Amino acid sequence: MFTLGIETTCDETAASIVEDGYIIHSNVIASQINLHDVYGGVVPELACRRHIDTLIPVIKTALNEAKISLNEIDLIAAAKGPGLIGALLIGLTSAKTLALALNKPFIGVNHVEAHLFASYMSHIKEVTFPALGVVVSGGHTSLVIIKTFGDYQLIGQTTDDAVGEAFDKVAAQLHLPYPGGPQIERLAKDGNYKRYPFKAGVVKERPFDFSFSGLKTNVMYTLKGQGANKNSPLLIAEEDKKDIAASFQHTALMDIVQKALKAAKKYNCLSILVGGGVSNNLYLRELFKKENKLNISIFFPSALMSQDNAAMIAGLGSYIYSKKQKSDSLEEEAMTRIPFS
Ligand code: KG4
Ligand code: ZN
């Protein structure tokens, strides 16, 4: 069964062809980073215009690379949220229109669930359930028990910034280009993570929740002096930047690793699936390995599958369809937020 996946939640226009829910025949991603980096973040109106221009060529490339025609597609899946409303509407409406025109079933997919499915798709024969899902992206930081895909229990989430958002904001303070996560990781490589004793937030009576906003402000005060704001000048020397990056990265990622491992133990999870843009961070992968005293199997997506991509949308769409054997309604609406349930 061949699925065409479409993903336009934020600043990537993506299309993919996936067979049987996990065999990836193409995974085309047109990134808009160059369009947005002069603004230091995503400009929604520009993102929408670029999606409109790019989506059809990206779908055609995905079909060509997979050597398949539209008529041979059995299912069309698109991200229905969470994301930027205008951006979502472009991918979702295109998918529904194609489904209607070709008389094929359609599935609307939760993009955050799909980040965890990306990890599963790459290790489909090894993952055992219940698994702990660890979502680390630009918009989400959550711990969720996956009894099986489609049956979740949310046990923790961020109460303020998502971890990727904290990376991007700290990077902006260090005058690094957008998106900041990979830049912080690069700078931190030669840094001393013990130099600045930063702390991640603790949320009262919620041991698996996260808070990164205090950490972000603490980094800013270290860079610019107590009480500074984001427009204040940097007070530290150029050579200190790498130690700040390393100390921030270590604090934020260690907090995630420790809470995830504690949660996996408490809820008797048999494996851990990590997903989302930040899961591409090699220091995070190392920390998970080093701290894993439970000897639990921990799975990460490949680099291409950890960022926003349409293969994970096609994969999860195909999985959902094979379970319910029924198309979603073409009335399905885009949603800027979708709770885990
Ligand atoms: O999952 P994603 O592509 O988009 C969302 O759904 O948000 O995640 C994007 C986020 C950005 O905040 C980006 O800075 C972060 O993932 N990111 C990283 C790395 N690569 C991407 N953060 C830390 N280290 C990385 N290597
Ligand atoms: Zn994402």
Residue fraction in strands: 15-25%
N-to-C series of helices and strands: EEEHHEHEHEEEHHHHEHEHH
Could you name the ranges where pLDDT drops below 50 across 5 or more consecutive residues?
A: none
In which range does the helix fraction lie? 40-55%
Kindly state the number of beta strands.
10
Calculate the mean pLDDT score and round it: 96
Bound molecules: 5'-O-[(R)-(carboxyoxy)(hydroxy)phosphoryl]adenosine, zinc ion
How would you characterize the largest beta sheet?
Answer: 5 strands, mixed
Distance between the termini: 28 Å
Radius of gyration based on Cα positions? 20 Å
What structural class should be given to the helix and strand makeup? alpha/beta
Shape by Cα distribution? globular
Q: Output the number of helix runs.
A: 11
Largest sheet: spatial strand order: 3-2-1-4-5
Structural write-up:
- The protein is built from eleven helices and ten strands.
- With about 350 residues, the protein is α/β, with parallel strands linked by helices.
- The strands form two sheets. It has a five-stranded mixed beta sheet, with helices on both faces.
- Strand 2 (about 10-20) and strand 3 form a beta hairpin.
- The longest helix has 26 residues, at about 240-265.
- The two termini are about 30 Å apart.
- The site of 5'-O-[(R)-(carboxyoxy)(hydroxy)phosphoryl]adenosine has 21 residues, from helix 5 and helix 6.
